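Q: Joint fold for the lines below.
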Amino acid sequence: MDLRYSPEDEDFRRELRSWLATALPQEMREPAFWAAKTDDERFAVRREWEAGKAEAGFAGILWPTEYGGRGGTPTMKAVYDREMALANAPTTVNPLGLTFLAPTVMALGTEEQKRSIIKPLLHNEVIWCQGFSEPGAGSDLAALQMKGERQGDEYVLNGQKIWTTNAMHGDKIFAMVRTGDSGGSKHAGISMLMIDMHQSGVEARPLKQMTGAEEFGEVFFTDATCPSDEVLGGEGNGWQVAMLLLSFERGSSAIGQYTEFHRQWQQVVALAHRIDRDTARGGRVKAADDPVLRQQLANALVELECLKYHSWHILTQTSKGKDLGFEASMTKIMWSETFRRVSDTYEAVLGTGFQVPDPQPGMSLTELTTLAMWSRSCTIWGGSQQVQRNIVAERVLGLPR
Amino acid sequence: MEFALDDEQRALQDAVRSYLRDRFGPAQVRALYDGTAGSGSDDGVPAALWKAIGEQGWLAVLVPEAYDGIGLGLLDAAVIARAFGAGTVPGPWLGTILVGEAIRLAGSKTQQADLLPRLAAGEVKGAVALLRAGSATAPAASVRDDALSGDLGLVEYAAVADTLVVAALDAGGAAGLYLVDPHGAGVTLVDHEVLDRTTRLQTVVLDGAPGDRLDAGGNDVLRDLLDRAAVLAANDLVGTARKAITDTVEYDKTRVQFGKPVGSFQAIKHDLADLHIAVTMAEHAALYAAHAQDVDADDRQLAASIAKAKAGDAANAATAAMIQYLGGIGYTWEHDAHFAFKRAKRLEFTYGDASQHRERIAQLTVDRLWGGDGPSGVTPGDSAGVQGTGVAAGAA
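A: Joint structure:
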């Protein structure tokens, strides 16, 4: 048992901190800076800042250097996740490209695809969307219907994708499309196509989330086209490509989530010292002194700290080159439920005040409230909690289907 | 970064498990429940098992080498506690370990030389009475001129112990630790029937019982000792909980109803998935808490309370689920499920229950985080930033 990071990791931490000290101005760490901007302006600032980060050598920490990455280790990635979260640095505007597409291209792509896709992605010259879910294909992804009909050296595309993150900012979309006969198996006949979103047959419409923001949307394809060499992993192999692609989430240690949710928890505690309430037995106290809320705050911290210990466990395994496989579903359940628990506590501390951004003079809770609502989405996207539980039960515990 | 047992700790774990598998399995535990264990076990201490525990060094792990011990850390003791939980092991192992810790932390050279070698060998059995009934922090006894009085409540293995460590408050309210002869003057023991037949409980009442003071044993050492006790109890609990989950999963893979294994039903498999996660997290917490004491980490008190709270909750849930998901057979005397449930119930409420530890967690964190930068500083970075974080955003 040794929870210290290696001298190399600590060197990397110092280097990253010192770069952040100059490259991330204080104002960008303040909520007011972002609050004064529109959604599009925020996106543009983050896009540019992140491109600068790539120039400085702090992008693609785990990627090989030949693809513009850092060539780093899992512990370096954990150091990176932690430091970026501690600094309140802008997060990536290209999450689906960075997390999923790029590693898949490195694994399966042709030389030409690697050259043309990875560097522009890393430098945010191309923002990628992911086209998996459809109105009739959510948890049951293989029920997807979007068609790609081969005509000469291109596919003609018709269908619809939904819950598409960054739909309004996307340049290209990697999508699961039915290009051939399923032959009776719904996993067959699917291809992973990389489609230009800037064409007349592609229309993206925003969807308004319960937060009021429009960060995802739906994408309609009406006789849109895609060159036949824009297939990743070969025609008809789309299901296998998607499974590989989704596996790239598994290396995540969740230390970044821990860092963010822990900060959220601290902010809830700060609030609990400012807000008075009656205890269930009567008597007016600070929320932080209410015995029931104290139990809730403590319980949220128990889960948070367990998430941190779990991230150490993941790092220990991945540093030895072990693939955590389906255990990743456990990690997803753990961090998303912890996030919800912290959010529940926030709502309980505020009570009716949760309904307004300024329950007391000087309070500005818009961002925390948005965060609490966002926690409701995290147990749905990327495989709902119920799907994840099936995976844990069947693939980790070995219970029958 | 290595958050795992090392090779020697894994070897220790294997040694304990394999001894239990070969020499003290479910049949021997059942004999204790059925009262058929034979002579020498009426006191809840199977003689051959206790002898082996001494010979194997499982009582010597924390005793310094200078006193014929092995001089390892709490993490090594935690490995044993976890295996003992999984094996439903009876006997005064924990009490004897804690008496050794009290003497190691607070005793004089003379007391250490007298007792530690014999505790390490299992020649002397120990019991502890550190808390009044229902408390996670306050001693039961009071002391005047090294004479102790008070109702100590239920004490594990007081009747077989050769020495009892009692925490007592002096007239000024300061805590001290004392060695008391449980069979000496001023000590009354009342035996009870116990639900968990892998322990024995006696009510201990002191009335001017002479105590041999452990001179360095003030409030801080008592706190430290209670944390160590809680960490070992947490490790026993996670061992118990893991065994319960594993056995339940195995049963539900093969038990058929409606023409299918019951483990294929989502009402059951989803709960088992959640329990597996809860127990895994409790295992992490129990592991870290032991390590945190060994390296004197800044958050060692917090870690101890997190481990005890999480392990207590997880073991309660896991052992209760075992009874439920076995159906009728799980409620019978003839199935072993109740061994785990009763053990978890005992340890869940020993050395502070989950709500008491959560209150302590609040004292260690909430009360010290007096929102310095106030409510307007309560706004984090841009929400869009948060949404894009971590592992990929969005469904799609």
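Q: Anything notable?
A: Chain A touches chain B through 112 residues (CB under 8 Å). The radius of gyration of chain A is 22 Å.
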